[in-house]
Amino acid sequence: MGFTKPEGDNFMNVKIQGTAKELRPARSNPNGPLCTGIKVDGQWYDLPGDHRNLYNKVADLIFEGKMARFANPQQPPAQPQSPPPPPPPSATNGHTPRWPNRESVTEAWIYYATQVEKYIKEPYAIVKAANCLVMMEKDGEINPVHREPGEDANN
């Protein structure tokens, strides 16, 4: 299954069996660029740049002694993108009302219940409709009802 390097120390399309964990300069040039150690057919070669992600992959390489380089020019890695903006706080999603306390949500529920009972006469249906409207307001699907704090829902 192994390969033999052809004449002229050139070879293409090899499977990289292993990569070094750390980058280091090539032994032939200690002051040179950092290289990734790659293992091909039991032999270790230096490949300039950080290519530790090539483990267990196939690449077109040219071998020159203990140095390796890509047969085709590689595109430089893309610049890192800025992270997306953080989501709004979980209590509000930009337009969702915040229920400051239990009384305010109860007040909203009573308001919706009294409003829908004008049109719905079945008690269970009134409760379900009021629950839905309060949840829709909480999730921002409908605008909050504009009522003064402490306003009686029966008005």
Distance between the termini: 87 Å
Strand element count = 8
Question: Please, how many helices?
Answer: 2
- Quickly give the structural class: alpha+beta
Structural shape: rod-shaped
CATH structural architecture of the largest domain: Beta Barrel
Give structural notes.
The protein is of the alpha+beta class and 155 residues long. The chain folds into 2 domains: 7-70, Beta Barrel (OB fold (Dihydrolipoamide Acetyltransferase, E2P)), CATH 2.40.50; 92-155, no CATH class. It is 20% helix and 19% strand. The protein has 2 helices and 8 strands, in the order E-E-E-E-E-E-E-E-H-H. Helix 1 (102-116) crosses helix 2 (123-138). The longest helix is centred in the C-terminal third of the chain and has 16 residues, at 123-138.
Summarize the structure.
The chain is an alpha+beta fold and 155 residues long. It has helices spanning 102-116, 123-138; strands at 14-15, 18-19, 24-25, 34-40, 43-48, 58-59, 61-64, 67-70.
How are the secondary structure elements laid out?
Elements: E1 14-15, E2 18-19, E3 24-25, E4 34-40, E5 43-48, E6 58-59, E7 61-64, E8 67-70, H1 102-116, H2 123-138
Antiparallel strand pairs: 1-6, 2-4, 3-4, 4-5, 7-8
Task: Give keywords.
2 domains; 155 residues; four-stranded antiparallel β-sheet; OB fold (Dihydrolipoamide Acetyltransferase, E2P); alpha+beta; single chain
